[in-house]
Structure formats: C-alpha cells, structure tokens
Specification:
Elements (H helix, E strand, L loop, with lengths): L2 E3 L3 E5 L2 H9 L1 H7 L11 H21 L4 H4 L1 E6 L4 E8 L8 E8 L8 H13 L7 E7 L3 H9 L3 E6 L3 E7 L1
Parallel strand pairs: 5-6
Antiparallel strand pairs: 1-2, 2-3, 3-4, 4-5, 6-8, 7-8
Length: 174
C-alpha cells in the first residue's frame, strides 16, 4: 500500500481488495487496516454518492489500469495520534489531454474546522504536482460552503467560476 504522511495524518491509498471491502463492510475495512470501526458523520447526499462512486468509478478504473491505481483509488485519511479514519480524498485519474485533473475530499464532522482537510489536501496536491503532464488541479465546492472554500484557498486554489449545478469551480495552476 502506498502512503503519504503529514504532521498529523497518514493518507493511505486503498488497493482493489480494500476498496471492495469499503463498499461491502466499512467496519471490516477499518479492522483490516488495524483501525477501530468508524461510523462517519457526513451529509446524507454525500454518503449516498460515496460507495457508488467507489464501485462504479474507482474499482473499474484501477482494474483496467492497475499501473495507475494511485490516480484512480480512494485514499483514506487517518489521524496518526488517534489511529482513526477521519476522511478520504481522491482524484479523477491521471491528467487529461489538457493536463487537468479534479480532486475531492471529505472529513468526518467531529474533525471539521481543525485544519485536517487542508493538511490532507495540501499533501495530496504536492504529490500530484510531481507528474510532468499536470498543469491544472480542479476542485468544486457547493456555493456558499465557506469551510471547503477556505481549504482550497489555503492550498493555493483560485476561484474560477460558478457552475450551473450550484457549484463553485476552483483551480490550482501547477
């Protein structure tokens, strides 16, 4: 398994088996990682999208392109001191023809507004920037979601536009 470390966090890239386990039984995935089972406090709409995204995007992509699994996989965010899963993040895959990728992240409600999302996103973006074809990292936030906007601003993203779907588009030039 591939890992990134920050001062307070461990970012762990899930392999095929762990993503499958996450989809079927999140508590079992936590146990396999040596972590206590966690029931995250996330918005219902997000929870409804997470596992289908893992099943319909991450798994097929990492199976089709195993040599690029780090681009397609789900990364769990682990609080190093507490040895507890507190969030996750990922990207849309390797850079497209225009040199762009999209990232997304989430943090469990009890750990919000403590800088964990910023710390994880910064480390993740630093790793992504090493790709020679990457020119632009994109992220979207719901319009008015100030905490998520602040995370992106701290990571160096600039607001680009408001999209029709009620989202703000943010960009980080590499």
């Amino acid at each position: 398994m591939f890992e990134l470390y920050t001062e307070r966090l461990r970012l762990l890239a899930l392999d095929d088996a762990l993503i499958s386990c996450f989809i079927q039984d999140t508590a079992e995935m936590d146990r396999r990682l040596g972590l206590p089972p966690v029931l995250m406090q996330l918005p219902e709409a997000f929870q409804a999208e997470l596992k289908p995204a893992l099943e319909e995007f991450c798994l097929p992509k990492i199976r089709a392109f195993p040599e690029q699994y780090l681009w397609f996989t789900h990364w769990v965010i682990i609080h190093r001191e507490q040895q507890r899963r507190i969030g996750g993040l990922g990207s849309s895959g390797p850079p497209n023809e225009a040199g762009e990728i999209m990232i997304g992240y989430y943090i469990d409600k009890p750990y919000a507004r403590q800088g964990f999302a910023t710390e994880a996103a910064m480390a993740f973006c630093q790793r992504l920037k090493n790709h020679p074809d990457l020119e632009l990292i994109i992220a979207t936030t719901p319009i008015g979601h100030l905490a998520s906007e602040r995370v992106l601003q701290k990571c160096g993203f600039k607001w680009a536009e408001s999209e029709e779907e009620g989202l703000n588009r943010w960009e980080l030039k590499v």
